[in-house]
Specification:
mainly alpha, 3-stranded antiparallel β-sheet, elongated
């Protein structure tokens, strides 16, 4: 009869590890539950794990890149449901592995199942598949295993991933319309410049008359675009390459992220988004029982913004020296003057005007006083996780409201821009025609 190694927690909260003989994992699970144990892990304790691992490895397919957040969210939700139903973790993973389509997630689950079969815990197995499971994910699972509340942790993880996806979806849906309008507007204007205006230029040349200054500038711009049309895709690519190259250095990356946070219109949107994401991450980790130093370190690594990463690092060092979270958060939430940020303002916002904008925003904080106060209250009352969740919810709502306001402002501006451009082209083309008609009538 097969042997199974299990880990469980008794009614007193004591951990138990033993090996039992049983026909199936379900039988072991049912027996231990009937005895009042809470099962956290069951693994096959026999040499046939090697053949099972070999069989699983043959199911791998070619894939590249990381697992998409939406796929990881669905996997986490399904795993939490299976765990809540009382299935052993290995059985749950095998079910989800067979249901997963060929790709990165399935390959990672094959590796995870192999690791668990060989005796590793779930968190140890997940940590060896970084393409799917980051440090936040692994540490929360580790905390759930230690506390015997894996089902609850999986539910929190699924909710966290869902909220993060909702926030991204709101911003993407709001930006889709203006981006499409700008793209089609540029396409129409390029078509007019390349194909329509040269025809008018031939007509005007036949009449051999002096053109108005506005028309001359339009013809010059049209000739420039026709002659150097290949620069139209080259210019945006060059800008992207310039940003990508400069931000590969840590110093310039910090300046670029600070530049994004200080932008006149879109800066508050970037700031609110990062605040919502980092506070929700920290709140989820704290609620899951991850030690505060480790939780802040993980939050720093998942911030994806150099300015917030530096602030959380300074908070981490202050806590090691015996300080609270709120005090260093208030102290370090105001980034100092940064030459790289000034450089980007100069390059992208009309030189001296951009520099002036940056100098006017030097005293602006990346963490508002209300966030610091709520964190302070959470530390005093012992409900830091709940306060961080409230901050994240508030800023999620602010992102939604600000995005709607931004779109309601951008739409009329785009219409005005298109009206001015098309109207200017029409006027520039019809001014010489009116002059020709007047000369012919005389």
């Amino acid at each position: 009869m097969p042997k199974f190694k299990f880990e469980a927690v008794d009614a007193s909260g004591n951990g138990i590890t033993d090996i039992v003989d049983a026909a199936t994992e379900e039988e072991v699970n049912a027996t231990l539950r009937s005895q009042g144990y809470h099962v956290t892990r069951i693994v096959l304790h026999k040499d046939r794990t090697a053949s099972a691992s070999k069989k699983n490895a043959s199911g791998k397919t070619f894939s590249f890149g990381k697992v998409k957040p939406k796929i990881l969210r669905d996997f986490t939700r399904n795993l939490s449901i299976l765990q809540d139903a009382g299935l052993p973790i290995l059985r749950s993973l095998n079910i989800l592995m067979t249901q997963a389509p060929p790709g990165a997630l399935r390959n990672c689950l094959i590796d995870v199942c192999q690791e668990i079969e060989s005796g590793s815990s779930l968190s140890e197995a997940l940590s060896k598949s970084p393409k799917a499971f980051n440090r936040l994910y692994v540490n929360m699972i580790k905390a759930g295993e230690a506390g015997g509340a894996l089902e609850t942790i999986l539910q929190r993880l699924a909710e966290f991933l869902e909220r993060a996806e909702q926030l991204k979806a709101k911003i993407k849906s709001a930006m889709t319309y203006p981006i499409c309008v700008v793209f089609f507007a540029c396409g129409i204007l390029a078509f007019i410049m390349v194909f329509i205006i040269p025809k008018f230029q031939e007509i005007f040349a036949d009449f051999d008359t002096e053109l108005p200054m506005m028309t001359q500038w339009l013809m010059f711009l049209s000739n420039l675009i026709v002659e150097y049309w290949y620069l139209i895709p080259v210019i945006p690519f060059s800008v992207w390459l310039f940003i990508r190259t400069t931000t590969s250095f840590e110093y310039m990356r910090f300046g670029w992220h600070l530049f994004l946070l200080r932008l006149p219109i879109f800066g508050p949107l970037f700031e609110k988004t990062v605040v919502a994401r980092t506070t929700r991450t920290l709140g989820t980790l704290v609620q899951s029982g991850v030690p505060i130093l480790e939780a802040i370190h993980i939050t720093k690594e998942t911030a994806n913004n150099g300015v917030f990463e530096k602030m959380y690092q300074q908070i981490l060092e202050a806590i090691r020296d015996g300080d609270t979270i709120a005090n260093p958060m208030k102290t370090f939430s105001k980034p100092a003057f940064h030459p790289a940020c000034l450089f980007y303002f100069f390059c992208f916002l009309l030189g001296p005007i951009g520099c002036l904008m940056y100098m006017m925003k030097l005293n602006q904080k990346i963490m508002s006083d209300i966030v610091v106060n709520m964190v302070d209250v959470g530390e005093e009352t012992g409900e830091l996780d709940r306060m961080l969740y409230k901050v994240a919810d508030v800023f999620d709502d602010e992102v939604s409201v600000y995005t709607e306001q931004l779109m309601s402002m951008i739409e009329p501006l785009l219409i005005i821009f298109l009206g001015v451009m098309v109207g200017g082209i029409v006027i520039a083309l019809f001014l010489p025609m009116i002059k020709l008609i007047e000369s012919l009538s005389k």
